[in-house]
Amino acid sequence: SVMSSSLTESTGVWVPVDTDEVYVGAQVISSSDSVNVVRIDETGEEKEVKRTVELLPRNPREFEGIDDLIKLQHLHEAAILHNLKLRYNEDKIYTFTGPILIAVNPWKRLPLYDAEHMKPFKGKALTESPPHLFAIADAAYRSMVKDKNSQSILVSGESGAGKTESTKYLMQYLVNISGRSKVATAVESSGSDPLTPRRQGTAVEQQVLQSNPLLEAFGNAKTLRNDNSSRFGKFIQIFFDDTSLISGAAIDTYLLEKSRLVSQAIGERNYHIFYQLCAGATPEEREELQLLDMGDYFFLNQSECFELDGVSDRAQFVRTRDAMDYVGLDEDQHMTIFRLLSGILRLGNVDFVIVPGHDDISAVRDPEELSVASQLLRVDVGALDEALCKRKIATPEGEIVVNSTVDQAADAREALSKALYGRLFTWLVGQINANMRNTGGKLVRGHHIGILDIFGFESFELNSFEQLCINYANEKLQQQFNQFVFKLEQEEYKREQIPWEYIEFLDNQPCLDLLEERPRGVFPVLDEECMVPRGSDDGFASKLFSHHKQHGYFEKAKIGTDSFIVRHYAGPVCYTVTGFLEKNKDQLFEGLKVVCSKSTDPFIASLFKDVDGEGNGSSAGAAPGGRAGGRARAGAPSGPVR
Fold first, then answer.
1. Does residue 284 have an active-site annotation?
2. Where would you tag: which of 97, 231, 571, 620 has the fewest CB atoms within 10 A of its CB?
3. Among the listed residues 217, 195, 225, 218, the one whose alpha carbon sits nearest the alpha carbon of residue 208
4. Is 229 a catalytic residue?
5. Among the options 159, 167, 270, 563, which is catalytic?
């Protein structure tokens, strides 16, 4: 920082301001014991700034717009933001900070990713390359080849930062550099997608690339910040054989946001595939699938948003079906999957009413909607009706059947819908993995390059269990970042006795302890409340307030008794506990599982043979149409999934 003794007339400084600019550039006019007088560069306004306000030094002009932040003479927040802004305004969206690449989302297509742009990065050391995703991918590949060790690339950032697009470009480069094929990815003025390769090269490479549009269709959705937000995390491993050519790939998926299936905020959308199906199905398919217009489905019309600016769901549906072809699904299997999707949408339209004179008994409002849903899912309509409106409860004397209230029946309908979609998603991941093998049918698991793409930090007007899980994952990633950038580097300087000045950084371990440490961490307390008789969201909140009232990273919300604040590394977030217990249990009553396991559709029945892993792990299942399907790679933790 600029100290009082170093302030002289015409010193260039950054002044903190309470606007979106955060800092403004200024020149020091004069300085006294109590105030500094500065002239704001942009407006010429003279302003008095108290000496207690820290003014940050500006870098000499020759450092402005530099491509590596560690080369800055003065390295602080204001200098970093200014340098990134200068580069961003020139469409230079990438900037190094040592071995780390900072990418700022341009919110437009830039001609930076075709085969010609890949050439300058091949075989270059990271220090010799301009900042670009391709430089990172090439460095990982060269390190793997040279050191005979697997490598990992972490793609991290807040929601809407561009992680998913970055992951696709990294995969594109690795496929290209492997030498097995020449994939054309020219960005044409017609607006063709630069990540849809021409059909050339080996099957395994195409399957690696074509996994992207399929996972996006079933796992991505429009949020308030991002029109193509990944609502799940994925770890992609690209395997290479002894000659450093791609031999296959595997995908682990995490934290599919199943709650999005049944409810979306105003201005957001459900998963892309539902809108693609409604927009792209042929008249014959619409009749067979008994499809309605988008606005007629409760699972789609709550948010009042049906279209994406500049995106044709009809065209995207063609792309999704091409991707389904690439992973080995034939037309009959397409229709089986689409029939399941249509059945889920119809389930959402099944509403319940109170039986007259019996407030604790519910009945289906419109039997026709239930009948159509049953036909599409190939289940017995009477059995489905009973499983939704009644439930079995275990007692010391044995099982008893009790009636469900309207709210309980609606919860059962939503739980079934989420289970169906989650298990379908898991099966699709397994199918992708089963097909991303070499031509001999066996995956050669040599060295690999792993790419972790997981949703970034989230803070909305209303934050629930999903946001807490996402932000917890990002806290763990931030700790990894701290270990890599600060702790380990400074320990190495110390070991080698290199003169250096200790860098203060925010260690987020206390926040992680608040969330995960047993027995009083937020998640252990939540698990405990789920197991106690008559556990409730209010009881969970009450225990948190009691345990953590003195914790520096925890605070009770000032309004209401159902909200708490966690001071994350990225800022404070207020969480509302309503629904926490239900979401943590993710409970599907046994009666509904039995109904689905008896479906006359072999595919749907197979999804319910394994009662574990509803959308977050390995769930084996026969392929649609009866063909043996692959198993998703195991990755689900035991207990409540986060």
1. no
2. 571
3. 195
4. yes
5. 159
